[in-house]
Write a structure and sequence with these properties.
This protein is α+β, with helices and mostly antiparallel strands. Helix content is 32%, strand content 25%. The chain contains four helices and five strands. The chain has a three-stranded antiparallel sheet.
């Protein structure tokens, strides 16, 4: 075993010796000569390090430091709320006179306008039901309800043309009334 190790060491050293570059007299002379060294002067400038800026503390806002707004938004500063609607009514064909047809159409248009105002002011309650038998709809029913008192609405314009009467109605509500209406919804 020692002989094998010794033999392998000799072989590896011979291989390494063969791979090493051979120095010829010309190459040896090149290795002995030294290239001149060029020295370049370096100018060193001092660096001035400034201390880091100290962050400013933002002032803390206290409740007693806060200012009240210039104009306080109170219900008295709100503008009045105006609601406009147009109701429609149709004259009956079987009336005793054109005046009766006009009066009935106008009354229907006024009632429609009041209903539209009530829907806008108080909202509409909707109920619906469906009757289903054998996976088919037998009856479908939708009901709408409006419950409101409308006072002081004004008729702005009335137009009667071709048996149709249109009534434009306007309701003006004070801010306090409007807030109480919205709160009661």
């Amino acid at each position: 075993m020692r002989k094998i190790l010794l033999l392998s060491a000799l072989l590896s050293s011979l291989l390494m010796a063969e791979e090493a570059p051979k120095n010829t007299p010309v190459e040896a002379k090149k290795l002995q000569t030294v290239d001149p060294i060029v020295v370049t002067p370096v100018v060193v400038q001092p660096i001035v390090v400034a201390p880091a800026p100290v962050p400013k503390e933002e002032p803390k806002v206290q409740a007693h430091d806060m200012k009240k707004p210039q104009k306080q938004m109170t219900p008295s500063s709100y503008k009045q709320v105006r609601i406009n609607v147009t109701g429609q009514g149709v004259a009956l064909t079987m009336t005793s006179s054109p005046a009766q047809a006009y009066a009935l159409a106008k009354r229907a248009a006024i009632a429609d306008a009041y209903r539209l105002l009530a829907e806008k002011v108080k909202g509409v309650r909707i109920e619906g039901s469906d009757k289903i038998k054998n996976m088919m709809v037998q009856r479908s029913e939708v009901r709408t309800f409006v419950d409101a008192v409308i006072a002081e609405a004004e008729i702005v314009e009335t137009i009667f043309k071709d048996g149709l009467c249109e009534v434009e109605m306007e309701l003006t509500i004070d801010p306090e009334q409007w807030q109480s209406i919205l709160a009661s919804r």
